[in-house]
Amino acid sequence: MIDLKPLVNKTVDFAYRGARLGFDLSHALFSSFAIDTGTRLLLKEIAHDELLAKAGSILDAGCGVGILGISLAASCPGAKVVMRDRDILACAFSERNCWRNGIPAKRLDLEGNPVEALLKRAPKHKENEERLKDTIIAPGLLGDDDPLGPYDFIVSNLPAKAGPTILSRFIEICSSKLLNPGGRLGFVIVNTLAGFADEWCASSGMILVKKTIAKSHTVFLLEKKAEAGSPAEPPELAPAQRPADGGPEGDRLLPYRRSSASRRLGRYSVHAEGYWGLPEFDTTSFATSLAVEALERACAGSLVRDFLIAEPGIGLAALWAGKALGPARIHAASRDLLSLRATKANIEASGGPTPEFLPLQSIDIGQARDAMFDAILWHPDEIPEYDSISPAWEFLKRAAKMGAAIVIVASATTIARFERIKPAEMQRLGEKKSKGFAALMVRRIA
Q1: Each residue's pLDDT tens digit, 106-164
Q2: What angle separates helix 286-298 from helix 316-324, to the nearest 10 degrees?
Q3: CATH of domain 239-444
Q4: Treating both helix axes as pointing N-terminal to C-terminal, what angle do 88-100 and 67-75 enclose, rounded to 10 degrees?
Q5: Taking the model in full, what pTM does it have?
Q6: Domain spans of the chain?
Q7: What CATH architecture applies to the domain 5-223?
Q8: Is the terminal CB of the chain with fewer CB neighbours within 10 Å at N or C?
Q9: Residue 407, class by beta-carbon neighbours within 10 Å (0-12 exposed, 13-18 middle, 19+ buried)?
Q10: Of 422, 426, 420, 419, which is closest to residue 446 (Cα–Cα)?
């Protein structure tokens, strides 16, 4: 587990319904200097909701650093609170902020298993003996089926960058699956999307209880009808939206699917699905093309059984590696759950014998064994005011096998910083540049 303390940009105080709270914010996550306006507005509008006060279960969908979920956990001590986010680093920060505020928390991994706690106990001045249930924090996508649901109350600061397709689907899933009959959904959205949200709410079949329009955001409070009968399932996707030859993961990601096309990667042609919320949904980036060129050179003549990709995007380099290197196992490390699942989906749909795919949360990348990988493609996660280069070299020295090829792809400026502190254990093989990107090729020799 990486140390989160260097990623803390600022700690802010917050009071909600009698609870005095504090939150660590980060440059790596949304709203790094203050609690954002939308979150404040949503909490204000639901503060005196009678159904929230009686809720036995609450979901914070897209929790970020945990402000909504922790505020409700502190003010509704009898409720089961679940917090989900596709950004695994956000989940870790939510856990950190739970323990900062004396909220017992349990974080789950990609498979739903509990992981070791970040902090062993809360600060002495933040004991919270009233709360009898652990807050559950886990990776999750908007609109996913949720084995911990359904819920009496769902809150969300809907991310505009997710796109209208995903946001509308989320509201439908809340109505059909995630909410108990009589349960409520409270969400806030930027005003530029509020008109769309009116349409989504009207088509959801839920009752509009309240709508509050502010300067930059709008809050919607919806209630699922309590009468008996099974709610309508969300609409099926049109046949054209379905992948031609997908696997189980591709089926789960159908709502996120945005494109389907063949790509040329070096000497190989691959078929890939693009997804809402991830880059390269329609065009291969210069960085990926450069990475493939560098890997072809760096891995020439090598036997590659275990191949690691850091931050794989939609998995284009993984698809290339499956054809060009023939690894037995492709490992992918990312903080983005959608990226890991998209990579898996594209590998499953690639046809023919496929390598075993092993996803890894990037915050837990230190768990990789020593001398584990024959080849590594490293896309640095560049976070403002955080030195990610020194820890990256330490990991690469430890995890690469003797003779392993390593390609690091980033901006030319970042690659220059990597070169300045290159360890003696790494032999420079060369460098490729294209359109502002650079690929540094090295081999572990000691």
Answers
A1: 999 999 999 988 876 655 555 544 666 789 999 999 988 899 999 999 999 999 999 89
A2: 30
A3: 3.40.50.150
A4: 30
A5: 0.92
A6: 5-223, 239-444
A7: 3-Layer(aba) Sandwich (3.40)
A8: C
A9: buried
A10: 426
